[in-house]
Amino acid sequence: MTAADSSATPAFVAVDWGTSSFRAWLMAGDGTEQAESRGGEGMLHCATSGFAPVLRDHLAQLGAPADVPVLICGMAGARQGWVEAPYLHTPTRLEALHAGAIGVDTEGDVRILPGLAQARADQPDVMRGEETQLLGVTEPDFTGIVCIPGTHSKWIRIDAGAVIDFATYMTGELFAVVSQHSILMHAVEPEASTVAHDAAFRESLAAALAAPTSLTNALFRLRAAQLLNFEQRSDGAARLSGLLIGSEIADARVRFGAELPLRLIGAGRLGRLYCAALAAADFDVNECDAEQASRRGLVKAARQIWGARFRP
Amino acid sequence: MTAADSSATPAFVAVDWGTSSFRAWLMAGDGTEQAESRGGEGMLHCATSGFAPVLRDHLAQLGAPADVPVLICGMAGARQGWVEAPYLHTPTRLEALHAGAIGVDTEGDVRILPGLAQARADQPDVMRGEETQLLGVTEPDFTGIVCIPGTHSKWIRIDAGAVIDFATYMTGELFAVVSQHSILMHAVEPEASTVAHDAAFRESLAAALAAPTSLTNALFRLRAAQLLNFEQRSDGAARLSGLLIGSEIADARVRFGAELPLRLIGAGRLGRLYCAALAAADFDVNECDAEQASRRGLVKAARQIWGARFRP
Q1: Residues of chain A with confidence (pLDDT) below 50
Q2: Residue A228 and residue B178: Cβ atoms within 8 Å?
């Protein structure tokens, strides 16, 4: 942090308030961060302890002046969150996000950005938090695909800055429940790093891409292959990961197309796995950091709400 | 039970010893049952308490004479069971099952039938117990498909009495872990009867048959559809069931073909669901009772081992 940054008047506080995590940044008028505060007080925690005291503590932690406004994205705006910020319905331009922000009846100017809903009976879907990342990583006229891997992976088709289709895949959550609660607990080592077993990951990824309808059979085969000594338990986590990520990508590339540019919002281990997997499935990938995406999205929306607080 | 049956000399005791259940029948020389004894002392229970005392108690319950031989199928023959009965490898004729039976070093003549293994690196698979049901429901020259729904559903291609290919789908287990341990716990009522929600079952079955690559997305859609008020929680179990059974059948009909005759080994609620689902997928279905299938298979194998004890 430079001296110039710390002396600048803060423009607003950016908050990414998820299901099980809280992250806040004090942001300067030029869009740079001046301070950061994070904790485990996500929506689930606050549903019992309350949201206002958690925000107050983090604002103090950040050293935020009393009159600085706060913009929040994520699960704090869910029905079971602080105040419900009703979903914007697709198709919608990402630049319209700020207009759906809901003011919270609390000290100061605190607003929560809406999530997105795809209210189609054949393809119902919802997101909260990812819409702000989308705003953060796309230009106003962007046309292409964004992939956000995670517990519930999101794939989004954007056309000239408007979200026109999206889908959620239960990839990360299936990995967790199947490796902890099914017969595959015998086939997957809980602590195994999938990165250390690159060949196993790529092999089962290729198998899933080649046979995308056979997931529930392929899951059992992970166990049978070890019983019959074709595979080792130490590779189990990498193979399960390749299988689930491969199933996701096999379906998504048909629905969203592999010919458009793809922005991957992810970092660390999962980002690397998806980079390798998307390249194997012939996508042209451009990787972005997830936290930076949230912050940039919050800055773009805040500029539209409180323009005078920002330098042009 | 007729007087003639109960006075006949018993030929053998048929035992289906599964992971979590035990079922035994005292069988007459004409292949009819004279008595039945069942309990929860499956392999998991016996792994700590021992197998021999459990069998002794049930033989007493059946009133079996001391010299009557015992033929067992199922998990008692697994590596973690009583005595390992090594897998027969496919392709194998079902009539060869009896030749793979392993004698147990205990009181009397007690033998355990082997399971089947498909020892192919690309399609590894195993079964224990179902091979005896296959023997029970097929004629020596049978050509066709057998489907055995359950926790781990089995599909088997039989050619002139020989098992040439089979696959296991984790359908029932996925239903359990996903509805109990994932976000879908909010979308599925644990006690809901799927039979009472026939339209919901058929709708999601049709969707899965039409889009067989999108399972991990369709799972999340179950939740999103309820959040957006397109569907009701009371239909959740039926929809999840239709989705998983549809995914299984969509893959199996490509691998095993829908043009051959299909024998469905199942009864009760699950049998009815599969009957409806297989008919919707254009299979020509012939339904058989699962317990009867096991008993008939054990009788066929016992006749080959102890022929003199049976009437021709």
Answers
A1: 1-6
A2: no
